[in-house]
Amino acid sequence: RSSHSNAYFFGFWKNKRIVIFDTLLTLSHDQILAVLCHELGHWKFGHVTSNILISSGHLFILFWTFGQVMYAGETSRSIIRCFGYGNSSAVMISLMTYTMLIEPVEQVLQL
User: Fold this and answer.
1) What are the residues whose beta carbons fall under 8 Å from the beta carbon of 42, sequence distance 6 or more?
2) Integer Rg of the chain from CA
3) Which residues of the chain are under the pLDDT cut of 50?
4) What SS3 state is found at 20?
């Protein structure tokens, strides 16, 4: 059980919910109202939908670049050899190598 005050908004269409943790009940009425209004702002500005679209685009770009980088013929084989995996053609090796290559970009973008 957490003693941290928290609330969140989730759901789509007619199934939207705002969850307010019971730890918020120790706050004043105005503070609880401020938290509720904050969560309603997520609904008003469509943050759930926009974050899903952003995440979907991000995943598409990651998988597309994975295919372009790790299945580019001799270039991808030399990348795998440089990481010390020899002539392996295992998908898991390619995925781990790609993850190591893309990690600095992900850190800069903070995605």
Assistant:
1) 9, 48
2) 22
3) none
4) strand
List Cα–Cα distances, 30 to 49, 82, 88, in angstroms. 28, 60, 62
Residues near 99 by beta carbon (within 8 Å), at least 6 away in sequence: none
Q: Which of 54, 52, 49, 65 is nearest to 110 (CA)?
A: 54
Residue 64, pLDDT score: 94
DSSP string, the chain: ---S--EEEE--TT--EEEE-GGGGGS-HHHHHHHHHHHHHHHHTTHHHHHHHHHHHHHHHHHHHHHHHHTSTHHHHHHHHHTT-TT---HHHHHHHHHHHHHHHHHHHT-
pTM for this model (two decimals): 0.69
**Rounded CA separation 61/55 (Å):** 10
Q: At 30, list the tokens.
A: 């105005």
State both tokens at 63.
């998988």
Name residue 9's beta-bridge partners: 18
What's the burial of 80, exposed, middle or buried (CB within 10 Å: 0-12/13-18/19+)?
A: buried
